Structure prediction request, 200 residues.
Amino acid sequence: MTLADRLREALRDGHRGSPELLAGDTVAYQLAPGETLKAAAVLVAVTDRAEPGVLLTRRTDTMRRHAGQVAFPGGRIDPEDADAIAAALREAEEEIGLPRDVVDVIGITDAYRTVTGFEVIPIVGVVPPDLPLVPHVAEVAALFEVPLAHLLERTNHIERRVEWDGRERHFYEILWQDERIWGATAAMIVNLGRRLGWPK
Prediction:
């Protein structure tokens, strides 16, 4: 069975709405009257190799939102995007130069609400390894690949607590070499691991 087949099977057989999945930040974004959550999509690009990895970016320190943080390629769903998949593929092409026609889209997994008022839809896709990707210099300070097994290993999912805006906030953190993956990105990884049930 190929990596893509394994991912498709696991996502198809998942039980959505499981109480163990993380729906959003414990410090809720306060919507103004008539305001709705902003829709966004990210691409969880899994490299098709014997030991699969996941492509992640570190945002530049000059970004208006989430400067310097590790993230999946992605962003807001624009009106011209056909759907969340189209948005994730467009953003990945813009941010890291990943051609959308090389992505084998596996499917959509569990949405996550951020403390900044976004509902983020992760799109899982399989991509060829070692592509000559070119990060957008204004948005991406670094592009790197983390082994999928490391990201999904439960013992690497470190729970943290911090006082934020007068309330205690709980979040996950995953460390890889010199990179710190935390917040919404870590939460989506934790959800994906629970959905896939990997590693056993």
Summary: The helical segments are 3-12, 84-96, 148-152, 183-196.
